Structure formats: C-alpha cells, structure tokens
Amino acid sequence: MKIPVEILRSVFGYDSFRQNQKEIIEHALADQDALVIMPTGGGKSICFQIPALIKEHTTLVISPLIALMKDQVENLRSNGVNAAYYNSSLTESSRNFIRQQALSGELKLLYLSPETLLGGIDWIKSMNISMMAIDEAHCVSMWGHDFRPEYQQIGEIRKYFPNIPYLAFTATADKVTRKDIAEKLSLRNPTTFISSFDRPNLSLAVRPQVPKKQKVKEVVQFINERNGESGIIYCLSKKETEAWAAELNEYGIHSRYYHAGMGSAERDEIQEGFINDEFQVICATIAFGMGIDKPNIRWVIHNNLPKNVEGYYQEIGRAGRDGLPADTILYYNYRDVVLLNDFVAESNFKEVYHEKINRMLKYAEASTCRRRILLAYFGEHLLENCGNCDICLDPPEFIDGQVIAQKALSAIVRANERLGLNILINVLRGGKTIEIIERGLDKIKTYGAGKEFSFKDWQHFINQLIDQGVIEIAYDQHMHLKVSELGHAVLRNEQSVQLTEFKERELKKKEEKKTGSVNSELYNILKDWRKELAVQNSVPAYVIFNDATLGSLATVQPTTIEQLHQISGLGKVKIDRFGKDLIEIILSKGTPKISTYEATFQLYSQGMNVEEIAISRQLSAQTILNHLIKLYEEGKKVDLYQFITEYELQEIKAVRSKLKNTHQLKPIHEATNGQYSYEKISVALALLNKHISA
Description:
Blueprint: H1 4-12, H2 21-29, E1 34-37, H3 44-54, E2 58-62, H4 66-78, E3 83-86, H5 92-104, E4 109-112, H6 114-119, H7 121-124, E5 129-134, E6 166-170, H8 175-184, E7 191-194, E8 202-208, H9 212-224, E9 230-234, H10 238-250, E10 255-258, H11 264-275, E11 281-284, E12 297-302, H12 309-316, E13 326-332, H13 334-344, H14 350-364, H15 370-377, H16 390-393, E14 398-400, H17 402-414, H18 421-428, H19 434-438, H20 455-467, E15 471-474, E16 480-483, H21 485-491, E17 498-500, H22 520-537, H23 541-544, H24 547-556, H25 561-564, H26 572-589, H27 596-605, H28 610-617, H29 621-633, H30 646-658, H31 665-671, H32 678-693
Parallel strand pairs: 1-6, 1-7, 2-4, 2-5, 3-4, 5-6, 8-13, 9-11, 9-12, 10-11, 12-13
Antiparallel strand pairs: 14-17, 15-16
Helix pairs in contact: 2-3, 13-14, 17-18, 17-21, 18-20, 22-24, 22-26, 27-29, 28-29, 29-32, 30-32
C-alpha cells in the first residue's frame, strides 16, 4: 500500500499533515465511518482525496455546489489525478463519456450533487465504489445553518454500498447537529474528529453603529489600501448587495453582486469571474461562497450582523485559505437584530434561532478578545489573548459607570419604558426636538442630566449597558428600552457598573508586511506568468500555484529541480510541467541570492523559532527542523539541544548501539515502539554523529 505522506509530497507538494488529517486518512483506509468537523481552510479535501488515491476503486464525493466540484476537480487534474464531476452543467455527450469512465473504473474520484446521486443511482450502483465522502454535511440537519432536504436522502443509498466507509465533513456543527448528521446519513459507529477552529491568520474587527456614509468611506479606503486584492462583502438583503456593488463601481473598484434572485446562468458567470480574478469584489448574500476554494481571498466584510456564529465563522473562513494574513470586519446595528428576528418569527425552531442571534450579538458587543469568545462557542479555549483582533490591538480602559448608568435607567423609568435609543440620548442631553416637546419629555427630572457627554458617548455607554444586561431592548415593541432586574439593582446601588469611555476607533490602515528576502520584482513576474498559464489552460490562477507558493519561489529563488522539491505546494506533476520554465524565469529575471537552507539560517540567526520560520517561509515546521539539522551538520551555529533532552539522547544512543550504530531512522523508531518521532531521532543522530566525528 502507498504511504499517505509520500502521496502528500509527490502529488500535492506538502511535507507534513495538518491537525487530524493523518488520523482521518488512516481511519478511511481502515474502512471506518467518520464525522469530521474541520474549519474552512483546514484541509478537509486532503482527508478523502489521499485515501481515494490509495484505494483500488472510485471514491464518490457528494457536494452541494457545481462551483465546488469544478474547483476541486481542476486542482486534482492539475496534480495528475484522474477525477471528474457529473452534473447538469455538462453536455449530454460529456455526461455519457464520464459515465463510461466511471463504470470502467478509470476515475479515482467522481463528484456528484445529492440530486445527481439519487437520480443516477441505476448506473451508479453498477460502479465499483471504494468510499463515500459527503461534504458540507451540516446540510442534512434542520439544526444546521444551511439545511437542504435533498441531503436527507443520502443515507438511503447505503443499502447499495453496505461495505464501504462513509466520511461526512463539515466546517461547523454543534453537538445537536453532529448527532443529527450521524443519524440522517446512516453513519455506523462513526469516530468524530474535531480540529482546532483557530485561524490565527485572520484578523477580527467589529464596527458598531456606523452611519451609512461613513461606512462607505471606510470600506472604499480599506479596499483601496489593498491594491486589487480579492474580497467579499456579505449583506442580508438582495437590495443591499446591488447597492454596494453600484457604490463601489462608482469609486472605480471593479465589483459585482450575487444573490439567489438572479438566474443560475448569471450567478455561475459571476462566480467564475470572481474565481478567475476578473473583478476584485463580490457583494453577496450568504447564497454565495459555500465550498468556494479560492485561496487568495484577502478580506471579508459583513455589512450586517450574521444570523448565527456558525455561519459567520464559515463566511470569514473564506478569507486567507492559503494561510497568509487576511482581514475581516463586521459592521452591525440594532436594526439588524430586528430584521433577523423577523426572518425566523414563523419558524418552528424560533427559540433556538433567537438564541443563536443573541449569541452573535454578544460576540459583536464584546469588550474582551474576540477570538477567545469565538473559539469558546465551539468548545475550544485559548489560554491567552490572540493579539490579532481590534480589542487586543486597542484594549478599552474601564471607568466607574454607576452614575452614568443610573441617569440612563432613571430616564427610561420616568418615560414609562417607551423610549428608543436615539430619543433616550436626546432626553439625557437636553435636546429640544419636536418629539421631546410634544411628549413632555422635557419635564421629567432626568431631562438634560447627561449633557456633559456627546451623542456618541451616550450611544457607546448605552450599548454597553445593553450588552451587560442592565438594559434590554424590546424588539417586538418598536425597539423600546426596558430596565432589567439587574438594572433595577443598579438603580438601588446594589450592583456596580464598569464601562469603557468612548474612543473614536478607526479601521487600522494596512501595514506593509516586511517580507524578508522576497524578491518583489520576481514575485510580480511569476504572478504575471501564472496568469498567462491560467488563461491558456482555462483554470483559475491559484490552480497553477497559490500565492503562498509564489511567495516561497520569490524568497528561496530555487535554480535546480531538486530545490523546487523543497517548495511547499509543488508536487511532482507540477514540477515536471513547469519546473524548467520556473528555473529559467528565476535565472533570467530574478537574482538568486541564497539557498533554501541559507534562507532558513538567516531567519534562525535573527532569533526566530521553528514555528515562526515555518510561517515566514510558508514551509512546514518539519522541513525547517530538517534544514536546521543539515545546517548543524555543515558546521553552522545551530543549537539542536533545544529539541531534545539529555535523557532522550542517551536512550536513542543506547538503542542505536544495539542496532550496530545504524544511520537509518525507521529501525530506531520501531525499536522504541514509536516512542520517539522521526524528527527527534534525526536530531539525536545529528548530535551523536557530530560527537563521534569530533
């Protein structure tokens, strides 16, 4: 049997697996069912593609969107894998050809929609199937955030293929949804794999109550600072997507809108255009994006509060799938909450949906590290603040808010709890509006009691009091503000209140990242060359190479085929196809400065650790450690003792001695019953060999 890590390197061009990938692959190879919860960009496809290549027959992949199928098939074919998708977008002759390939066993992977699977079962059940992978599996559950009834019939197909493993994949699913997925898909004693939801490359920012004109100004500036980088603006309504696209185009930002009210042909055209970098921005409802594999989306903006944390997390997860830095911004106001609650008012599950909306609101109104709140929702806990959200980057300062809160609460009570947010602020500031005069609100005791604060100050204070549960919003009573039980305790001085002072926050300007030894001229030349290749081959540019691979090429500047094999994202097929051209471009246009090992040593000498070097160079930590071992063997000043204890070194030395001082890793690994990793053994051998030669 082929070894998974060898396929990972030779086909996909990566040196090591991400969290849980290896275990899931081994599970599939053992013909066991599994439910995989892995965040967007976490590498789900590798988990079923590698076992599909190892298994003898064809793997069926069930996917809800044509764009996703096409994207993954193009990527597989570019890596030399015989894969196909079968759906309504193909001509009848193409479908006939693919059916023949499938029935003759030529395909390693065949992508189908649930409808196509069910409608074509007469010929599909004649295939030799080795495995079934169901992507976006949360669609099977009414508790999931994107329920699709046709998914519930997939479990019935098991009777035709009783002896193969079923693997279900989803980016987000709570405990109730996980249980529902397993039942509806007829999974047999599935092992559940839950990967870390942390995406540290995504910055998180929230902008509350920003007026429309200011929002447009901010977003235009934000996009212009990003020099043509791709991004998505998510909106709650079709009308808003069209308005945003029109607005941005007026500012010279090439944008299109996308929503479910458009014809399928038009939606497909827009999706293809975005994937192929024909325009920069797509303004869309949540109908857009599920399963899109475009790795170089550099930012995601939400124009409104999302309806739940699961959907929000999946949507921001579409940015930075290549692992490079990406930005996310959430704009919201309380009208969003009213609109969202209206959406679910007639649902049989409205209590659940209301709670999910409230959890999303609490995230938006948080005054502590946003990533910790986000991950805690999925049952994962960071021990430290993330340092990459707006709260961490600009922490709020707290003040005693007791008197401020009492003034607001008193005004609400004296107006019989019939004030909205804006009129409450005007009352506190002593405003002389027609409504205040007509309603006699200028006669209450707290009229003008807070005139020392600006409108924005009060807006900031009251939002915090709502967030803390001191004040409640009656969404079903014209958004009137109510005093909660906690609020009454504050009025009686039985409960203290801490607030943060208002500070005019601005979106941080994009910082120019120092890219070390990246040759920017070479990077741009390679990018243009990649674009030409993509056009010639009618595929998106990232199918040729992704941006992270381009960055590594422009940093390392390899000049031999052997050096190309050290670049993350370059598999054997791509090196065979493009290797000579790459070397020619680098030699003629770039200025090769250092070897890949020297590039690692430069960063190590600057005090960076293995993980930091790996991130900087877009290589795996394992590759960086191998570089340091080689550098040590060549006499460079590298401290390998930081990676191994003296006890471990002596134990490996003793085992090696029993094996007649072997230089091979595997015998030692087996002799220690796998107690020590190959990396640890490599470090030990380097130290022991140096000592012997000395």
